[in-house]
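Appendix B. Chain record.
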Amino acid sequence: LHEAAVKATKHIGYESAGTFEFLVDKHKNFYFMEMNTRLQVEHCVSEMVSGIDIIEWMIRIAEGEKLFEQSDVQLKGHAIECRITAEDPVNFMPCPGKINKWIAPGGKDVRIDSHAHAGYIIPQHYDSMIGKVIVWGEDRDRAIKKMRRAMDEFEIGGIKTVIDFHRRMMRNPDFIENRFDTKYLESHL
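Structure tokens predicted for this chain:
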């Protein structure tokens, strides 16, 4: 995947942050979906496994600094991101309202990206995402355990959120054993 993305980037002469999206089948064949010429919501996962602050480097490149070589990027470990949305965890419908309690998790290898806080009012006409929890582990199993702890520690009151959904997924045997696909939720909810 990485080699294909780097080769495609060089071929088109692209020189900024961007993401390539692929689908992978059960035989580990991968198929190109799209390239986004912007920073993705999931950029934090890339930052956690690479140790590179992508936003910082976008600014440095814009100021004329030379980008390091792809061979200088060393990926390490496994990262998981859970989007925290103000949605009903049963039907994923937006649930605007006022947050009256906000206790975010913390600790080693746990990152919270959010603008929300106790007292924040979630408007009904905007995106329901109020934050992201990103964890890093030496491998997938350790990352899942860290995310499980982070979700167990996260407390938001006054609104419905998908935190309980994430708690269940981090304990779901199919998720833990990597036995799911893009249609999993449709058939298991």
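Further analysis of this model is presented in Appendix C.
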